[in-house]
Amino acid sequence: MGVYLDYAASTPLDHRVFLVMEKYYRDVFANPSSIHGYGREARQGIDVARRQVASLIGSQRREIVFTGGGTEANNLAIRGLVKANSGRHLITSVIEHPSVLEVFNELEREGYRVSYLPVNREGKISLEDLEREISDDTVLISIMMANNEVGVIQPVREIVRLAHSHGVLFHTDAIQAVGQMAIDVKDLGVDSMTLSAHKIYGPKGVGALYVKAGVQIHPLLVGGSQERKRRAGTENVPGIVGFGQAAELAKEELDERIAHYTYLRDRLIKGVLRGSEGKLTGSMDRLPNNAHFVFEGLDGEMLLMLLDNEGLAVSGGSACGAGTVLISPVLTAMGYNEEAGIRVSIGMPTTKEEIDQAIEIICSIVNKG
Predict the structure, then answer these.
(1) What range defines the domain where residue 55 resides?
(2) 300-309 vs 352-368: helix axis angle to the nearest 10?
(3) Active site residue 363
(4) Are 125 and 93 in contact (CB under 8 A)?
């Protein structure tokens, strides 16, 4: 079939997760809001999952809100925090995921003022730039924990301290980071944080939002009292149960996963840089499963097609906007102009042999020009 190295886009469902979910598709089908025994059994599944997800990030159970995915969680976090608190000025970065940036774009159209922080060549924001943008009217700062394209990790703990010193709320999109690094929301001090199940070998269509106890948030969806009235609608019980199981496994296996990812990532980086004229983008303060390369003089879309033709599945991005070439605002923000970029992301099923095969394919294609 080839080599799949696009785990940052989505991971396969862990068979141990599926085995837990299966029961809730087949046998425990009742509405978890029903008060009879069948409903209480479904509710118990959600309660267990909430504890498992909370444990992964060091939060309390009541601080977890289940959603229909990471995009919904980001929308709820940003709109919900802004609507529930006073202030008309917001701060984010230019390299956020579209599920964050497009919310800020909409809020601008609604009359809010938004500051978009640049990043340096390493892909990081400047704390000095951030402090200059904070005003008395700033209500929310939202900076991702780790970039979904180049994998660079932002100084979240320091950003939180700065935000709170000015009385400003802080949200982080941690969808790429959860399950790739140790995260403790109490230690970080964040006010809200988003997660997604299908990035950690759980099911698609399920996400979660951590909301610190005492922080007010306005719901996006109304019409029911589910999720402590923060997200109305009958819960996706099998999906939530699967998310919980995936979170528990991620916590138990975190050290093993990080070691596996790091070894293969470093092998990949050394091989590609040794065998081609490619460049690694961003700081090495990055996710353990992420390597992102740029190649001068190549068409980004064509490069992806050629790699796919050889059976290698990766993601792309290019700073060049000519024709139909894929455009990467992240690479543009980091100062790349016409380089074709590829993101190679590693998963638990990835083997050393697959990495070596990927190195051979990448170097062979890019060296042909």
Answers:
(1) 15-252
(2) 130
(3) no
(4) yes
Q: Check whether residue 339 and residue 258 sit in a common domain.
A: yes
Place of tokens 């093993």: 256
Contact in structure between 149 and 290 (CB atoms under 8 Å): no
- Asked if the model's pLDDT at residue 137 lies above 60, the reply is yes
- Judgement on whether residues 267 and 352 belong to the same structural domain of the protein: yes
Burial class (CB in 10 A: 0-12, 13-18, 19+), 38: middle
Q: What is the pLDDT of residues 3-19, one digit of tens each?
A: 999 999 999 999 999 99
Burial class (CB in 10 A: 0-12, 13-18, 19+), 36: exposed
Domain co-membership, 277 together with 265? yes
Contact partners, residue 150, CB within 8 Å, separation at least 6: 123, 281, 282, 286, 290, 292, 330, 331, 334, 343
From the candidates 320, 326, 346, 362, which is the catalytic residue?
Answer: 320
Instruction: Name the DSSP class of 33.
Output: T
If one counts every other C-beta atom within 10 angstroms of the C-beta of residue 218, the result is 14
Q: Considering the entire predicted model, what is its pTM?
A: 0.95
What total of structural domains would you count in the chain?
2
Residues 125, 128, 133, 136: is their CA dihedral positive or negative? positive
